[in-house]
Prior knowledge:
There is one protein chain. The protein is mostly beta strands. The protein has a single domain, classed as AOC barrel-like, CATH 2.40.350. It contains 1 helix and 9 strands. The termini are far apart. The N terminus and C terminus are likely disordered.
Amino acid sequence: MHRKLIVIMVGLALLGGVTVAKADDELELELRVLVDPGTTFDIAFGISGTGGAFYVSGTICEDPEPGALCDDSMGRFDCWGWMVDNGNPAAPVFVSQEFNLDGRGKIQTQGAEDEGPRAVVGGTGDFRNVRGEVTGTDFSNLPEFIVTFELTGVDDDDDDDDSDSDSDSDDD
């Protein structure tokens, strides 16, 4: 019970978004990302059979409410991958994504976008032991989107001095 309460408090206080504890070591996390101007998902469909690499970046917003201003950032989002066929909207898009949560660490994901859950393959800092899935991505309000995670292994031990050792923060 103590661990569950800590996971809820850590999630709500430090991660923002909609966070709900599910079991003693499980966490559901929802993050809102605002895509940076000048980067794009490049979903304009062109000649069938062509594909290519892409890169997208954005800000992870403190305010989880869709459409709200993103005045307070809680981190950075980076996504890179390969569009298999720009001319076919049903063709898979393979992605690697990094969610850098300021002062907490990073969560890394990989997989095919929109083809079921993507794997959470690891992390740094408080997320160094994390595993789980990206269970949903809502692109209905671009240029922002909502990502939902189901995670296990989030470090909730505030006494660990090296929890920030692998996390990067932008000093803008």
